[in-house]
Structure formats: C-alpha cells, structure tokens
Design brief:
homodimer; Malate/L-lactate_DH-like (chains A, B); Ldh family oxidoreductase (chains A, B); globular; seven-stranded mixed β-sheet; 360 residues; Mal/L-sulf/L-lact_DH-like_ah (chains A, B); 3 domains; oxidoreductase (chains A, B); 38% helix; 10 helices; Hypothetical Oxidoreductase Yiak, Chain: A, domain 1; alpha+beta; Wheat Germ Agglutinin (Isolectin 2), domain 1
C-alpha cells in the first residue's frame, strides 16, 4: 500500500508533538525520518517511529533538549544533545559545522548525549545547499563483530559523504561499514530467504546464511566479510566512525552504546553520555573556486557513468543514483509501507490520539 | 637476506642525491620510503626505488621542487608539489595541515602536482607527535574497476587514520580501498599461487583467481569484491579518496592519473597536474582535553583487544598492531629483501655510482 509523503509527514509530526516535541523540532524530525522512506532505506524511516516513542516511554528521549556547544575552536565544536532525538540533534550539530566552515573554511562537530539520527546521508546533504562537502558519521547499537571476534562490539556505523556537482546531480555516498546493513537482513527475514555468506556469523562466530543469525546471538560482519576478503578494513572503518563520534565527544562507544530497542537496557556502567555522531563541512572555495570544482565533478561523474560495463551487467552507477531515482518515484507515486508497519502506526496513533486517516 | 635499516637508508639517500635531491629532501624521502619496509608493506618500500629513478629519467620527477601553498583559509590549503617526489611533497603538506590545526583546531590540505607518496600511514602518523589525529589519502595509478565496470577507473586509493592513545600504542588504520592491495597480488604472482575469488576480475570483467589477471588487462576489485558483498561501498570510498585528493586540488583523477611505471605514458589530455593527496590533522584538545581522550582511547583499545575471539581464531587485533610488531622485529633483525630486489638495487647503484656495500 502506498502513502503520500505529506500524509506520513503530517502523521509523524503529530505523534512527535504528542510526546512533547516543540512544533519546529517535530517538523525537523519528521523531515529527517521520512527522508529514509523517500530514499528507499525503509528500515530507518517511519517504520521506526514507534521505536522512538518506546524510547521516550522508557525515559530515554528528552523531547525538549537544551542542545548546546560545550567546547569549540574556530573549526571544531563538541555538541551536547541533552538526550534529545538524534533526528533533531543532528541537524543542529550539522548547522554548527556549516557555520564554522563559512568562517574557518571547514567545520567539524562531534556530538554526545544523542540518540538514533535516521539515515546518515540526509545530514551530509545539508552541506550541498552551501556549496560545501558534507560528512556524517554515527555510532549505533552493537551488532557487529570485529574480525576474529565472537562478541558484538560495534554498530553498523555508517559513513556518508555528499559532494556537489554542477549539471550532474551530487555524489552522495551513504554506506554502513558492514557487508550489508541491518535493514537488508530484515527484508530477508520477512521473506524467509537465506543471506549470502559473508554477511553474518552465528553465536559461535561461524559463517551462516540464516538471516535469523543476528537475532540468535550472532553478529553482522564488517565490510569485507572475512579476513581473506578484507573484513579487517571494514572493522577499521567502523572503529574510526566510533572513535570520531564518541571518544572525541564523550559519548558511549563500542559495546557500551545504548541499544535502540527500548526492551534492552543501556549498559549499567556507561563510559559516556548517550550515543555519538560526527559531522564535517568543507567549503569548496576553501580549496578552489566552486565553479571550477563543480565543472570537474561533472567531468568525473560523466566519465564514471560512461565506463564500459561488464557484459550483461548494469551501467556503472554513481553513489546516490539509486536513492535519487527512488526519491523521485516515491514523491510522485507515494511511499510503499508493509501491512505490519501500517498496523503498527495505526495502533501508535490510537494510543496517542492521532488519527491515521489522512482527512482527519 | 636481511639488511639493516641504516644500510638501506644510507643507500637510498645516496641514490636520491645522485638524481639531484637536496640533502634534506633525500633524508626525508629515504625515511618515508623505508617506513614501508619496516612496517611490512614490502611492495611500497625500497623495492620501488628504481621505479622512482626511472620516472626521474623520463623527466616525470622534479628533484628540486618549489613546493608552495597556492590557496588557503584558516583551516585549509592547496599545495602545489611542483612535480616533486611524493615522498617529499607529502611531509611538506602534512606539516601545513598540522600548523593549521595548531591555530584553527584542524587543518586540511589537498595536494596537486605530486607523485607516489609511499605508504599512507607514515604521513598520518606524523600527527601523533602533536597529540593530533592524522588522516592521509592519495589517489594512484588506475588499476581498479568500479562495481559493474570492465574498465579500470580508480587506484587502490588508500585511507589512513592515526589516533593517539596513552598507555596503549596508537590506533593506526592504513588500508587500500580494494579487497587486497596490489602488493599482496605481487606476492602471489611470485609464489605462483591463486588469489581468492573477490580480489580480481579478468579482462572481460569476470571473477578470476589468476594472480596474473590484473597484468593481463583485468582489474583489482573494490573492497567488498562483488555487488552482493558490498563492492559498491569500496568503490564509493575509493571515489571519495580520488575526489578529495584530486578534484579539490586540481590534480588528475580517475583514469587520468599518471601511472607509476615509467614505461606507461601519462594520459595525453590530462585533466589536472600530477597526482593528488589529501591530508588532515585534528587537534585532540580542539574537542576535549587530550589526557581525557587518551584515557578513553586506552579503554577503547583495551576492551577491543579483550573481545572474546572465535574459537580457534587469533586474538582480536587493533589496527596498526601487525605493522608495529613487524617494525620492532625488523629494526632489531633487519629488513628481508628478495634476491631480485637486491640485484635490482645493486645494478641501480652501479649505474649511478653508489656502492651497495655497507662499508664503502
């Protein structure tokens, strides 16, 4: 069943108002959350709304955070999110990075005391409006085992980099540092299909194709899948994301990161506050004139698009292409939601007194 | 056969003096080049010395470059390497990043008109001496095919991030954005052993285990190996390295990057000057007190080291562990060189009038 962006946006805003978010924050958070549905990252969108509400019920979300800069230099800042929704804290912190870049050339902001911030890409893309390169990293619930580890130590810790072009659409990398994101696994679980080897290990640390492996005490694997195929590189990248997001800011890191699901308690002996993010903004003209750069980005993108494909394969894609195409389609034809997601949202609405019906 | 660091350093310096490098530059370049041999990246060390000399013979290296900053803001700069050895240009540019960070909190330097800079990690590690996080990226000769591409479009484009700790040794990630670095392939070629699937494709773009695949018109594969295992992520990361190193600075990018081997001509219609690097330095105390950060890094590293290993597997390693152990061993027992490498160096010495014998 498809639903218009506007209907889902209005519903999400009303729900967030009910848990105490100010009007402006509810609007920001709804826009950020739904960008995932528009761009095809269905696991990170409106399907998670009731998860955020459960965190609020568990007193783990502050709907009226006093977000502030607790330390800064000309090109850096640490932001305390005051336990607010990551969907609100992240746009605040990214704006700090952009404002720093306007003056110092670049801005770099590490964030503590936050929560899940939606998709990484939407925050990095904010920089594009200012002819800047945007960078967005976050740590997340520990579901990933480093190379040789049986234990889960890291989140899917994504990296997003958004780079403006001129005639070409922007380059937008938005990737988990695991072989496959958790959302892809959820799809296989629903379809009762096996996962390829290299995505997950079971509770003993052996490779498995069962998509239930992670739920059953196993773990997602770092990009690379195994040592021979470079999983130590995915593990290294996920670690850098964790350290920049949390050790620099004073948030929880590694296995101490508070889980997104409200039925799992946060660690009894935290090493920091909440979870962490890291944002960067680099003004293009801090390096060379923006027009010149964007002309070369057009040439870069055009040349890669025209790379000779392997016979029988698709065209070579540019990072951001699939998401942009999906967004255009979903803005026009609506966002498809699975029946269980719709039921979950309806009962959430019932509980908080928000009608699901568009015309209410 | 093993050779002492000091013997190889002295020989390398003398060779570089013969091609016209000033004394200070020859010392810097020898130190950077040999750091690869010490840290076990044998493909990038003294074995490449005659390759650099051949580039100089082909008038593609300027031994007396006038390196300079051509554009800057408080936290950024673009450096023109004036065609110098990357082994000399990179330390110059990293120092600019460190100097910027001292004042602005962070420093970010994109470099054009350079050449191969040795291993990425040695430049990132320079920041550690200043209680800073160091970042080092470079583009390189096109040997890598993006996902779905038959054509080679990118280099092995490494990413290095060096992060200081207190009692623990520093965290030093230094990785190619491919499944396996070219050096690993060279080892298999010498041993006449097959490569694992996922490392390379043949000239038609089909997966192959032949380590000769790349020489034979094939390509290295991005980290992930194939689409199902996330090769679009390795391709995306390699692309970011290319764009930060070259599109920001005005160097050649993608398939236009000049090849390291002198027998291949640079592209007849370059899109920029030389090849490009990108360096970053972030002062720890631009975010939080350095002592506090390093205490938490000790805890991060300690916890990951103690992660329960998969039965029958090694301990969980921290990025930088294997290289550091090798360096300690090689400083004590010498650097092993293969017979063909020794022969090559001896004849290089004969040609330029530098004796290989330690006592000369």
């Amino acid at each position: 069943m498809n639903f218009s962006f506007e209907q889902l946006e209005s519903f999400t805003q009303k729900i967030l108002r009910k848990i105490g978010c100010p009007e402006k924050d509810a609007a920001t958070a709804a826009r950020v959350l739904l960008s995932a549905d528009l761009r095809g990252v269905d696991s990170h969108g409106v399907a998670r709304l009731s998860g955020y509400v459960r965190l609020w019920e568990a007193n783990r979300i502050n709907p009226v955070p006093n977000m502030c800069i607790v330390h800064e230099t000309p090109s850096t800042a640490v932001v305390d999110g005051d336990g607010g929704l990551g969907l609100v804290v992240a746009p605040f912190a990214m704006q700090v990075a952009i404002d720093k870049a306007k003056i110092a050339g670049t801005g770099w902001v590490s964030v503590k005391n936050s929560n899940h911030y939606g998709i990484a890409g939407i925050h990095a893309m904010e920089a594009l409006k200012h002819d800047m390169i945007g960078i967005s990293l976050t740590n997340a619930s520990p579901l990933v085992s480093p190379t040789f580890s049986r234990e889960r130590m890291l989140g899917t810790n994504p990296i997003s980099v958004a780079i403006p072009a001129n005639e070409q659409p922007p380059f937008v990398l938005d990737m988990a540092t695991t072989t496959a994101a958790n959302g892809k696994l959820e799809i296989l679980q629903r379809k009762k299909q096996d996962a390829p080897l290299g995505w997950i290990q079971d509770r003993d640390g052996n490779p498995t194709t069962s998509p239930l492996g992670v739920k059953d005490g196993g773990a997602l694997l770092p990009l690379g899948g195994d040592r021979e195929h470079g999983s130590h590189k995915g593990y290294g990248l996920g670690s850098v994301v964790d350290i920049f997001s949390a050790v620099l800011s004073g948030a929880n890191y590694g296995p101490w990161v508070p889980p997104f699901v409200a039925f799992l308690e946060p660690h009894p002996n935290p090493v920091g506050e909440g979870l962490g993010h890291f944002f960067g903004a680099m003004r293009i003209d801090a390096f060379r004139p923006a027009g010149e750069f964007k002309k070369h980005m057009d040439q870069w993108i055009g040349r890669f698009r025209e790379a000779e494909p392997v016979e029988g394969q698709k065209k070579v894609l540019i990072p951001g292409d699939p998401e942009r195409e999906l967004e255009a389609e979903r803005r026009q034809h609506g966002i498809p939601l699975l029946e269980p997601v719709v039921e979950d949202l309806k009962s959430l609405g019932d509980k908080l007194g928000v009608s699901w019906d568009q015309n209410d």
